[in-house]
């Protein structure tokens, strides 16, 4: 939780959060994974496994439950993995969870000595950003009073993140600093209504923090903090 003094300083200067991965490094990792998988497939005999993932066949997200599926006529399937944990949910569904950045190797085999190796890389989930009535204010950091008072809903999204991962807003906290430097706090919970801007006045500063966004049962990511100033 942010200390009050830090919040007030943040109100003036804004928060700077950077979790970007170097583009060239990321592309090189993707290329390496593709080449490794092509080599493994070309050197292996034909394998009676159908494998696919909800996100991407050679990518998993750190600190998130990643589901993947294996279809095979043979029910005696064994799945092993490095640098991650794996759990079997049913005959075809498995869950991988990892917080280790190193590449992982997964081996799928059966009792007929068929096998397949798959290499995959990991990606951190970027901080989701809050949107109000469908608009983001992270760049401007200001909002007109008339516009703010019309806001009745909020959601979240991640730009340039096309992987299959649903985001459900869970809860966040708001600190309001008015023109007289009076500070008030409020906790907002998803589905309980959104009325914090109804009393907004020119000069007020709103700080959104402790943003917890649920992506699956018991799976939460932290949203990007936001500072907004009310203008005329």
Please describe what this structure looks like.
The protein is an alpha+beta fold. 15% of the residues lie in helices and 40% in strands. It is built from 3 helices and 16 strands. It has helices at 4-13, 23-43, 145-148; strands at 50-53, 59-61, 66-71, 77-81, 85-88, 93-97, 104-110, 115-123, 129-132, 142-144, 154-157, 168-177, 183-189, 205-216, 219-222, 226-231. Strands 10, 12, 13, 14, 15 and 16 form a 6-stranded mixed sheet that branches. Strands 1-3-6-5 form a 4-stranded antiparallel sheet, with no helix packed on it. Strands 2-8-7-4 form a 4-stranded mixed sheet, covered by helices on one side. Strand 12 and strand 13 form a beta hairpin. The longest helix has 21 residues, at 23-43. The protein is elongated, with a radius of gyration of 23 Å. Residues 1-23 and 40-46 have low confidence and may be disordered.
Overview features:
disordered N terminus, 4-stranded antiparallel beta sheet, about 230 residues, 6-stranded mixed beta sheet, about 40% strand, 3 helices, alpha+beta, about 15% helix
Gross geometry: elongated
Q: Please, how many helices?
A: 3
* SSE series: HHEEEEEEEEEEHEEEEEE
Query: How would a textbook summarize the main sheet?
Result: 6 strands, mixed
Q: Estimate the strand proportion.
A: 35-45%
State the separation between the terminal residues, measured CA to CA: 31 Å
Quaternary structure: single chain
How many strand segments? 16
Unreliable runs, pLDDT <50, ≥5 residues?
A: 1-23, 40-46
The helix-and-strand class reads: alpha+beta
């Amino acid at each position: 939780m942010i200390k009050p003094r830090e919040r007030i300083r943040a109100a003036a200067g804004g928060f700077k959060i950077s979790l970007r991965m170097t583009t060239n490094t990321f592309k090189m990792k993707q290329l390496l994974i593709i080449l490794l998988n092509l080599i493994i497939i070309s050197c292996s005999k034909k394998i009676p496994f159908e494998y696919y993932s909800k996100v991407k066949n050679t990518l998993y997200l750190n600190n998130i439950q990643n589901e993947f599926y294996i279809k095979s006529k043979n029910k005696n399937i064994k799945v092993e993995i490095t640098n991650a944990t794996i759990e079997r949910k049913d005959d075809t569904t498995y869950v991988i969870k990892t917080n280790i950045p190193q590449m992982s190797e997964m081996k799928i085999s059966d009792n007929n000595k068929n096998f397949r190796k798959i290499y995959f890389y990991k990606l951190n989930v970027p901080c989701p950003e809050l949107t109000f009535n469908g608009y983001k204010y992270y760049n401007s950091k200001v909002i007109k009073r008339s516009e703010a008072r019309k806001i009745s809903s909020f959601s979240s999204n991640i730009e340039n993140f096309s992987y299959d991962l649903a985001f459900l807003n869970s809860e966040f906290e708001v600190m309001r600093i008015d023109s007289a430097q009076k500070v008030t706090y409020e906790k907002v919970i998803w589905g309980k209504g959104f009325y914090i801007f109804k009393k907004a006045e020119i000069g007020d500063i709103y700080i959104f923090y402790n943003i917890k966004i649920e992506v699956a049962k018991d799976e939460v990511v932290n949203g990007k903090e936001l500072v907004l100033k009310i203008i005329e």
